[in-house]
Records
---
Amino acid sequence: MRRWLGPLLGILLLGGIGVGIYFSAQEQNQVTQQQLLERRQVLARGVIGSEKEDFFRDAKVIEALRQRGLTVTVEKAGSRQIANLPTLEQYDFAFPAGLPGAEKIRRERRARSAYTPFFTPMVVASWRPIAEILERNGLARQADRYYFLNMKKLVDLMNAGKRWNDLDHNEAYAVGKSILISSTDVRKSNSAAMYLALFSFIVNGDAVVQSEEQICRIYPAFRDIFLRQGFTEYSSEAPFEDYQVMGMGKSPLVIIYESQFLQLAAQGRLRSEMVLLYPEPTIYTKHVLIAFTEAGQRLGEALETDPALRRLAVEYGFRNPDIVYFREFASQHQVPIADTLVNVVEPPTYEIIEMMIASIEASLDRNLSDPLAHCGQRNL
Amino acid sequence: MGRKIILGLLGLGLWLALLTGCGRSEPEATLKVLAGSELQDMAPVLRDLESTTGVRLAMEYTGSLDGAERLAGGEKVDLAWFSHGKYLTLLAGSRIAAQEKIMLSPVVLGVRESRARAWGWIDNPNLTWRDIAAKAASGELRYAMTDPASSNTGFTALIGLASAFSGRGEALQPEAIDAVALKSFFTGQALTAGSSGWLAERYVQEQDRLDGMINYESVLLGLNAGGQLREKLTLVYPREGIVTADYPLMLLNPAQRTAYQTVVDYLRQPDIQRRIMEQTLRRPAVAAVPPDGRFPDRLLVEAPFPGNRDVIDRLLFAYLDEQRRPGHALFVLDVSGSMKGEGIEQLKTALLNLAGADQSLSGRFARFRGRERITFLPFSSNVLPAQNFQVGDTATEGSDMRAIRQAVTALQVGGKTALFSALQRAYEIGGQAQVTEPNRYYSIVLMSDGQSNQGLSEAEFLQWHRNLPASTQNIRVFPVLFAEADDASMKRLAEATGGRVFDGRSESLSQVFKAIRGYQ
């Protein structure tokens, strides 16, 4: 028996090697195609607002970029933090959320060019029972399955220090929490800065704040909507995650990007009691990519012009010129969205926003002095 | 010949196995992590993290305030992982390059079921913290809670309470702190500790003389499931809200971002989130995994957390100096001949630090507190005269701290070790003080570097101790192991009195005395 076992094993082994060589030769042809693409790849390193992280980590996005010769690696930070990073120009690109932060980068750094591949309106994520309480108190009106939120009336309640149990028909949420909208840390993140921009427009009598004198008139109201929230987090995904995980007890109203809500819906993770409130008026967050290198420029161009990437951006809930696909995508996932928003306001200039934020910053840190201390206290 | 080929094939196989690496022996990355001590229960998950991803977390456990202070001081670690990161963010926010929540556990009150039923607290949506404070003030609710300046559950509870009592429903401002309500709530605090784990252990031991405990929901649910309680704890979630620990994993060394992301991705995937929930009774931090049936399904109102460090520091100092039950701390101090040199120097430094010499944040919290009584009882061959101090002013250069420092500096060494006679004397002093001041929180620190060789024996002491009135007998002894101390005897003492042994050999006496402050 032993006598034939050895040669047999030898034959099997040789056969195996032969088969192996055959198959690997077959693969070789495909590999060379791939290798050519790999060799053309340009690496683009960037720092982005956290709301775009999932987009850049998506396998389809990675592939679409690769087809255009781009390998992208991203790190996330609060959008205002990005503007202040000392090492920012060592990246190929910065991709914060919001015009004010982008404006600061464009002025202070040697940017090659800027692109605005997508935008998204600011919305308020809430819960069905909360929306119904708001509606019964004349603060919201239902349209389709979403609501429009009367910001003027809500802001008046907030400024008057009202709580949820002060409202009528509050059985579903008779808690002693003050009526406030949860946001991120306005010192670090764009979504809170957009909220500040929107709030300042309303308390300024439906006008964009344009001067220090006007800021003085709305001081300290614009500061208190942040201070009264207490501890806030640095990036837009944290409060939205708290909304999903901790629910109505933590977050009855959270200001977020519409894209975050759509993205959640697209992943099939929207629960029936989660509802979208469109503030009236609202404000857009534009996502501006600032390129510092040629690789950054190539990415900016790809995101603006590549049809596949544009559709993928829609699948992450962002709006762009491809409005037809945006509508199709939203209805496909049964997310009712307000696709034409007429009542949209502009943010104040970078200097005005910065002055308001610096004042809020000073009230949280006793080592800083408040640039608006001379304004004095006023009640609106 | 056949055998040769078989052997040859075996050899080839072995070589191939070596070449491809059949087992992972060395991790691909090791991250140094400063972590809260309650995270020790994550060890099995972290082992699998390492075998799946190749990233090892080298955990160093410490108290949360201590950790926050070390990080603010610039200590070089890759990650930090505590039950919450808010205080650390306020203290050293610029050091945190990224943070992601890993799991959740609200800090709540567990009350013995019979009490909860009698008071109408079971499933009562209208129950408030004020109702609870009323029961504490009337003496009906005696509860265990950790020291807010040393442990996170006490800290979190204090924040939640202060916010509830402010009646404002928004972030606490200094002028809204209701000191009277807080003080009446704390009259019910019958047990304090520097660690939530030890607090839970003592609760099990002393469940018959306590009515409840403030701790993580996970710890309370674990006790209810564990079968050590004669009576289950009803978890109450008062209407004004509670504060939830969210265990953020924080990146401090940006160079380790890739490994950090690997760890976060692993820990936040649904399967692992489910496993963490099953094993630790903490709630998942991702929406994809809903909490299972063991968690009460109800609206959890989250109290806002202050956004300003000054408010928090003010709350902590007010708790220590004005609102908690004032303490009477007795220090039984060995000044026998063997303490000469290194021993007495370390001891003096440790006591001087508590009397104002340590200016660090944690040092200021550990300092002798306003309203506190301090007794130094030095001993050698004989028990030396006791020195008593009543602290009014906690300022470093105030007369009270100066007087204590003078007494410490004047300590002299020489003679034998009459340890148990000294301890007996400490109990006598404590017992007498209890007659006039029954509401103080009494404790004894016993520091010795050797075995008792003079006066009362251990057996004689324990015999005597058993015959003390219950309130005096319950004064806890916290022995410090140092040099040639008799470990077994010290452990028996701690056990007999419900205290805890501290190791003064692996840590400096300064660190040990600071840690013990959380138990006084």
---
Amino acid sequence: MNKLGNMKTNITLLDKDGIRCDGRKIDELRKISLQVGILKNANGSAYIEFGNNKILVGVFGPRDVHPKHLADTNTGILRCRYHMSPFSVSERKNPAPSRREIEISKVIKEALQPSVILNKFPRTVVDVFVEVLQADGGSRCAALNAASVALADAGIPMKDIVSACAVGKVEDNIVLDVNNEEDQAGQADMPVGYMPNLEKITLLQLDGILTPSEYEKCIDVAIQGCKIIYKIQKKALIDKFFKGDIA
Amino acid sequence: MDNDKRVYVTPGDIITTGPYRADQNVICQNNKIISTVVGISEIYDNNVKVIPLAGIYIPKVNDLIIGKVISHTSLSWELDINSCYSGFLPAHDVFGRDFSAHSDELSSRLHIGDLVLAKIANFDKNRDPLITIADRDLGKINSGELVEISPSKVPRLIGKRGTMIQTIESATHASIIIGQNGWLIVSCKNQKLLYKTIEAIKMIEIQSHVADLTDKVKSKLETDSGE
């Protein structure tokens, strides 16, 4: 899916002890750090480092819709722009939106849509701007995690936070949170977005081939991963709003 | 039953389960009361609500607000009300029923940049909020200092049954007009008291999540006056 770089993949993706190319176990996430409210001029913002992904998200709104014909008199609308900086990959990326970026913008928007409650803001728009500063595998999931907390930071009413992570099939094993190398050379990659409290899936894509039993295992593994990420998201929000004094 | 339970919540948190009534910023799903914003949850008399700590001002009918005139047509003024919608103040509301677009000049009453204390008369999904100043004490604001805070912190500034705002007013002898949209007008006898009042207001805005803030504000105001 993510044809981000043209690295040679002669590395062992999974050794006989079950250790992956970056030293993780098969059910281990990459290192995640998440900060909320770091942009002063946006209504809500978040910065996530998800493995080697570095992504900044800014949320504006609810605000006036331009162009005006997009406005809906019954509800507010959600717009999303996923953009990769020219320096986010090893070879300069043209900053114009590519086919892939347009797709991911749409996918993130549709993954966030079930979580937000915009019917109290008719004729307005909530804009989500996702800027990838450094790209690795699974940037759409990382972006979704940051976008969801940025929306909460902006005070947009939400039914739940959306957590996301990818699962994949590498050397016939189901692995959690595929990185760039595993994505390029692996057999399957499946990003999953999940609302942990409502227990509902908001994003599900699959690139590759899985048997029905493998698919079910993938979903279970992905949900476990999302639950871990949810705790990180929640902690980031509490750190920003309550500055550590937990009641 | 614990009637005064205050907990920090984030969106999606289940505050309680059972036959409670969903008040502000919560939704009820399968008998579970779920928070929709980051804030402080409160349970009282079978009602559950969350006081938000972020968000913009959404107009509500009968809200007292402070608006700033940004433009006018021959029939109405447009007001910035610190929201995603702009306020609509019709001319006959100011001039009375015998308003005539030919003889009355709108700029004779309100200029661009003027501040107006007003009320939301009507608001629905199709139009911008309709503003009125046809009530006692409403109208153009001639004196005082404009202070801006986050609209979500307004309930905290007022406090339970107005305790917080009374504390400030009695300590500084200030008169504070609070617009629900997060704009305030503070009038004081002198500059020193004015700065003190604004400092107290800003303190509430920053520390709005802290418990027993009223006492903290009170002690701060008392120590300041002792110096």
